[in-house]
Amino acid sequence: MMHNGDALREARKTFLLTVIGALAGYLILHPYAMFAYYLTETGQGDMHWRDIFLMTLRHMKLPMAVAFIFFGSLIGFLLARMLDKQKKLHATELANEKHRAALETLQRLMITLSHYLLNANAVIGGMAGRCKKCCSERSVEEYLGIIEDEARKIDAVIKALRTITEIKTSDYTSGGRDLMIDISQEIEKSLGKTEEK
Q1: Domain boundary among 67, 96, 125
Q2: Are residues 89 and 140 in the same domain?
Q3: CA 122, 128, 134: angle at the middle one, nearest 5?
Q4: What's the confidence (pLDDT) of residue 90?
């Protein structure tokens, strides 16, 4: 997305290159064409290049000069557009590369988290289930139920992070300076599936 300042800079660059192209058409291309014409067609090879250049400035040569000015300005305009497209393409490639790098880093993080947390979580959930079967006290059952719920939440977080393809963030603190990856919807979906089972 281009901001107003960027758009203004691009418009200035396009205008400047168009003007430079027009000047090049009038001061370089037009005299060069006239010089080539006088050297080949008229057989007046003895004319000095300065005389030919001054001849291009006469009002009789104005229609030809206008054509070369238009041609030069068109080249300048097209060059500016091409440079602008290349710049945008490069910016898009950089953004895609950063996005890929962020996802790759997240996937590596998930492999590490999965290795350590899933194993620990399996033990926590398994032991809480065993304790529930062994113990009949109401308060202990309640606490073990909370442990099981939290273990399911950890599972849901890891599953959500494993399947993430787009990084969305949300505020972790009220100041908005600390951002965390927003996976709340994925966690709710995963918890909903486990409760259905």
Answers
A1: 96
A2: no
A3: 135
A4: 94
**Is the pTM here over 0.85, yes or no?**
no
Whole-angstrom distance, CA of residue 149 vs CA of residue 127: 13
* Residue 170 backbone dihedrals phi, psi, to 5 degrees: -140, 160
Q: Residue 82: what pLDDT?
A: 92
- Specify the amino acid at residue 127: M
Residue-level pLDDT at 92: 92
Contact indicator for 34, 52 with CB cutoff of 8 Å: yes
For 123, how many CA atoms within 13 A lie in the half-sphere containing its CB? 4
Same domain, 53 and 137: no
Q: Identify whether residues 183 and 114 lie together within a single domain.
A: yes
Element at 47 (helix H, strand E): none
Per-10-residue mean pLDDT, the chain, length 197: 73 89 84 75 61 71 82 90 91 90 76 70 76 72 77 79 68 60 73 64
Q: What angle do CA 130, 131, 135 make, to 5 degrees?
A: 125
Interior/surface letters 82-113, b for 16+ CB within 10 angstroms, e for the rest: eebeeeeeeeeeeeeeeeeeeeeebeeebeee
Question: Which domain, by its residues, includes 34?
Answer: 4-96
Q: Would you state the pLDDT for residue 85? A: 92
CB 171 within 8 A of CB 164: no
Q: What is the pLDDT of residue 140?
A: 75
Indicate the residue among 68, 96, 124 that finishes a domain.
Answer: 96
- Give every CB contact of residue 71 below 8 A, 6+ residues apart in sequence: 25, 29
